[in-house]
Amino acid sequence: MATVLEDETVFYFTKRQGKVWVNVLVFLALSCAYAPIVSAAPKAELIKFWDDSEALSIMQVDHSAWQDILTAYVDDQHPSGVNRFNYASVTPSDSAKLKNYLSYLQKLEPRQFNSEEAKAFWINLYNAILVDKIVDAYESGSRRAINRLMNGGVESRVLSREAAELLMQEISLNDIQHGILRPIWKDPRVHFALSTGALSGANIQKTAFTGANNEELLEKAKAEFMQHPRAVRVEDNSLVLNSVFEWYASDFGDNKSAVLAYIRENTSDTMRQAMDGLSRISFDYNWDLNTFDAQSGFAVSAVSRK
After folding, report:
1. At what angle do helices 214-226 and 256-266 cross, to 10 degrees?
2. Which letter, b or e, does each residue of 210-239 get, where b requires 16 or more Cβ atoms within 10 Å of its Cβ?
3. How far is Cα 189 from Cα 232, in angstroms, rounded to an integer?
4. How many CA atoms lie within 13 A of 84 on its CB side?
5. What is the pLDDT of residue 158?
6. Are the C-beta atoms of 211 and 57 separated by less than 8 Å?
7. In this structure, how many other beta carbons lie within 10 angstroms of the beta carbon of residue 6?
8. What average pLDDT does range 84-112 have in this prediction?
9. What does DSSP say about strands 238-242 and 281-284: parallel, antiparallel, or unpaired?
10. Are 264 and 275 in contact (CB under 8 A)?
11. Does the N-terminal or the C-terminal CB of the chain have fewer CB atoms within 10 Å?
């Protein structure tokens, strides 16, 4: 199905051709059956243990191993406008490097960092854990492993299960996102920095976050998401928004009007004009994995930019 935007930008959803039942692709064909339930989206509830930082700290985390992984396996020039990760090509040595990086992060004390360094720490930890789990599923070659990994979107067990241990505190991906990043920093751009591993999710950046580049990289991530049809598009005289604006509406504004104002402020000029006069709103999310596979998900022939 093709949807034509006001500026004749064409947004294509391509159907999967044939039966590609190999490793993770099995899950891609099934994932739409596990669309997340809005009411299940976790609230931002502070985990007080982590609510501390050292404003004058000059400590810096070494994210070079993570940068090596991103440089080797992230395609940030994909014609769809959605960055892809080449999970299937991760070598055993790079898989080991990723696990060593995660072990290194778990030996640190993020409350000793300044606020920006801590923010980068938690974003990278989240994304690296998610990538590690997907790579493990690929390496296992197990349909069941992939299904367990992504099954159910925001309700997925992988998000609520223990994923790391810092300072004798067990934490999950949900803890990092909803108990640390969202309530401490109250920055909606976090949603554009954390990878869900899905085509409708935020781009996984090719550059590791650091205390020094946080602001620049968060603005880049926001622009890439907000000015892409997966964030907002017009379809059949209706405004179709990414489900993140429904699940986490309160992060973007106090009410519906405020959320729409946030979207209007950050989308392209062309999309902003297309939004005028539209009252019908629906939400959509494509949970297909952001792999290099050309047949998984959608492609965009042109993306409106400011």
Report:
1. 100
2. bbeebeebbebbbbbbbbbbbbbbbbeeeb
3. 16
4. 20
5. 67
6. no
7. 13
8. 96
9. parallel
10. yes
11. N
Question: Other C-beta atoms within 10 Å of 296: how many?
Answer: 21
DSSP 229-290: TTTEEEETTEEEEETHHHHTHHHH-SSHHHHHHHHHHHS-HHHHHHHTT---EEEE----B-
Neighbours of 40 (CB within 10 A): 11
Bridge partners of residue 13, in order along the sequence: 298
Structure tokens at 100: 């060593």
What per-residue confidence (pLDDT) applies to 156?
59
Tell me the C-alpha distance between 19 and 53, whole Å.
Answer: 51
Q: Tokens for 164? A: 């790391």
Question: Per DSSP, which regions of the chain are E strands?
Answer: 2-4, 10-13, 74-75, 84-85, 162-166, 169-172, 232-235, 238-242, 281-284, 298-300
d(CA 16, CA 9): 22
Asked if 109 contacts 167 with a C-beta cutoff of 8 angstroms, the reply is yes
* 98/53 Cα distance (integer angstroms): 26
pTM of the model: 0.81
